[in-house]
Amino acid sequence: MQRRTRWRPACSSFPSRCSSSSTHSIGGPVSASDESTSLLGVRARVVLPDFTLEIDERIAAKGVTALFGPSGSGKTTLLRAIAGFERPTRGRIVLGDRVFFDAEAGIWVPPHERPMGFLFQDARLFDHLGVSGNLDFGARRRGRGDTRFAFRDVVASLDLGPLLGRRIVGLSGGERQRVALGRTLLSGPELLLLDEPLAALDVGRKAEILPYLEKVTRRFGIPTVFVSHDLDEVVQLADRVLVLDDGQVAGEGATAEIVEGLDLGPSANRHEASVVVEGCVLRHDTRLHLTLVDLHGDTVSLPLADRLEEGAPVRLRVRARDVAIAIVQPEGLSIRNVLPGHVTAIRDGGAGAADVTIQLREDHLRAQLTRAAVEELGLAEGSAIFALVKSVSLDRGR
Length: 398
Prior knowledge:
By secondary structure, the protein is an alpha+beta fold. The protein has two domains: 5-261, Rossmann fold; 278-394, CATH 2.40.50.100. 20% of the residues lie in helices and 34% in strands. The chain has eight helices and 21 strands. A seven-stranded mixed beta sheet has the order 1-12-11-4-10-9-8, sandwiched between helices. Strands 3-2-5-6-7 form a five-stranded antiparallel beta sheet, covered by helices on one side. A five-stranded antiparallel beta sheet has the order 17-21-18-19-20. β14 and β15 form a beta hairpin. It starts with a strand and ends in a 9-residue tail after the last strand. The model is unreliable at 1-17, 19-37 and 264-270 (pLDDT under 50).
């Protein structure tokens, strides 16, 4: 039996002034009777020598879904089963009204016949073809009449123009992954599958590629399922999260609710108390190297993220340890983000600590304080306060 905790949060969306954001739902077992053109249904048992995956899920095929969990939890196995690289011993896999695997009916569609694009950790480019040749190879696989991924649009979205005349040898890791992503998109997939595409990159290259992944999933509206064990990647890219543990579904829901409400424990490297807030980009200040973001009427600044267009939706993870509290409006501070609010809850954090929940206009934050600080400030439910958050702590690429 699956060990499962389900979240059924109220629908959340980016502010109305932002560009539209893809959101989707996860939930419930899949059967032949409830297929639709926007549904990825996976009911599968995959048996490996030292591991078994058991899953029965429906994933709405729009937006970005993250498969999240510790190493060995079944994330990549599930992705490979969807793509056809792993054959389940029983179950059914469908995309819309097309069946790719049905054990009872004896249906098995091989990977190369599934309309899916798979991006591996390593780029797996053809060295002898060069950049243009690799992109052309992908384009030749696209069906006639498919205009979703025009060559010039893909090249422009991934800034591949300067690389078109280059050989594969000599490209940086980030450049190779951009070319691989471009080749995958040009093949015209109906579903994009990403198996930890940033895992082989250093921190700098990872920060380079993340905005491109975010950009193309929104620009082309392609439903995407990606594997990650990095919570910051999940926050930046995913609309929803499916948490796996020991081959089973441990939780599912919208990204913000999963990050805050799920006790991920070992599922998250560097996991700590935090919330996810959603807003939209107001403007970029290149002189001060800052980006201003509207959070439902509150304005915050973060390190310059000028790859995001003005008006674009943005998702930020705010760690409780990065939030301080003042009971009077402070002056003469280096901290740029000072947000008025009030305390809605104070919980025991153990070891002399307290977890304080702060309500802003529409969003809320959490702060980790010492119990001594709570008493000295006289904090209680309903207390009017100011939340202080350093701009540098809102870096989306960490």
